[in-house]
Design goal:
Strand 7, helix 10 (277-292) and strand 8 (296-300) form a beta-alpha-beta unit. The chain has helices spanning 2-6, 10-18, 24-42, 50-65, 108-115, 158-165, 182-188, 222-232, 250-256, 277-292, 308-323, 346-357, 360-373, 379-399, 425-429, 436-441, 471-489; strands at 45-48, 78-81, 120-124, 171-175, 191-194, 215-219, 263-267, 296-300, 405-409, 445-452, 459-465. The chain has an eleven-stranded mixed beta sheet, sandwiched between helices. The protein is built from 17 helices and eleven strands. It is globular, with a radius of gyration of 22 Å. Helix 3 packs antiparallel against helix 4, helix 9 runs parallel beside helix 17 (471-489) and helix 11 (308-323) packs across helix 13. The protein is an alpha/beta fold and 507 residues long.
Amino acid sequence: MTSELVKLTAAAMADALTAREVSARELTQAHLDRTAAVDGAVHSYLHVDAEGALAAADVVDAARAQGRDLHRLAGVPIAVKDVMATAGLPTTCGSRILEGWVPPYDATLVSRIKAAGMPILGKTNMDEFAMGSSTEHSAYGPSHNPWDLERIPGGSGGGSSSVIASFQAPLAIGTDTGGSIRQPAAVTGTCGTKPTYGGVSRYGLVALASSLDQAGPCARTVLDTALLHEVIAGHDPLDSTSIDAPVPACVTAAQRADVRGMRIGIVRELTGEGFQAGVQQRFDEAVAHLVDAGAEVVEVSCASFTYALAAYYLILPSEASSNLAKFDAMRYGLRVWPEGLEDASAEQVMAATRDAGFGDEVKRRIILGTYALSSGYYDAYYGSAQKARRLIADDFAKAFQSADVLVSPTAPTTAFQLGDKLDDPMAMYLNDIATIPANLAGVPGMSLPSGLAPEDGLPTGFQILAPAMADERLYAVGSALEARLTAAWGGQLLDRAPALPTSEVAR
């Protein structure tokens, strides 16, 4: 029964709950049992809150028994990336410097999840402060890809992608600064959306780069992703970057699944050379499906996208160096006393704490950002990067004049082996080459599975980009493509994933 329940889509779970075919407690317990069986091998979670999740499920069951009106997703459990503040639950951001910290408040999107009656199963693993493309920079050890436990599940949200792909949760929250929802979705055969910047409140999201960070939904299907998107989206007066506008009709678009008459723009700079042959092959096949569904395909050029990677890796470290200055051992989190000093200054304690608490990648980016912002270098580095960002936004605007959405492969390769790129940061950064432009311009993007690469049998991702606050277009195109692909496959892509070991293995 447990295995059958956890394999359902979130929408099917919601329908079963409404029909009283299963209780929220039973559904939540089934996922907790699944976690107990497989997370030793996958390591998706940093913290599991079985007691809290079951208590929340009981509240939903009681309300349903009383005949109260409930949200469609009430009783459907969810996992939350450990970068979101959760009252009463540890929030570490995958870092030792916040080990054991328990926020006294909820992030706005967490409050909305609780208001919808969705039990929170736990907090998912991530690259430290969301810096990475593999989850290998987590201070608590990497997560593993359920398709091949020796491979990465993507990053920084590898915990959120792998928790879904391993059927430990039907839904999860991720965050996307340069692709950290979409790239993990691509390499695990799942679905994820980076909403329009400002479309989902950033209040309670521990900032990496404030002008780039955006929380969003992760799921196994396009409709499930849309359902969660509408739960967490909407204006928030606590977030000065929040857009005061109606939430796009994501669920309606996903249910419509119609691309007839739509213009699909293939971005010349995000295909072809540098992309794994199997990734490109599955992308081309997916485009053909959209043509068969009634869409028109056009090629667009966004020449400035060639500057995106360089601009991003100047803007992000610069903002990170500023945002992470607050982790200073003075107010909360880790405090390390300098060795050999009886009467240390605040500066010495801060230096010792940051040295012990931050990992190598975080230190690398803080140093880069501090240098880029330093006197005499600001204009040459950070200033120039912002000019490139403006050009990228202009190219998006021009492209959307001739296309309703833009498409590309989500990531240039399938999941690589754990450890393969740890000693080569630049090779790791190149994994974000197709996802970064959307973050620089603030436009929404989605990744959904496009099949398995023939050379290695691993998932590939199809990326869809839309104009700002036109998030519903992602779901219309994504759902139409998903319907055709699943029909061709004879079911969901994850049905082909290998069975996971249920014995405890070394993390």
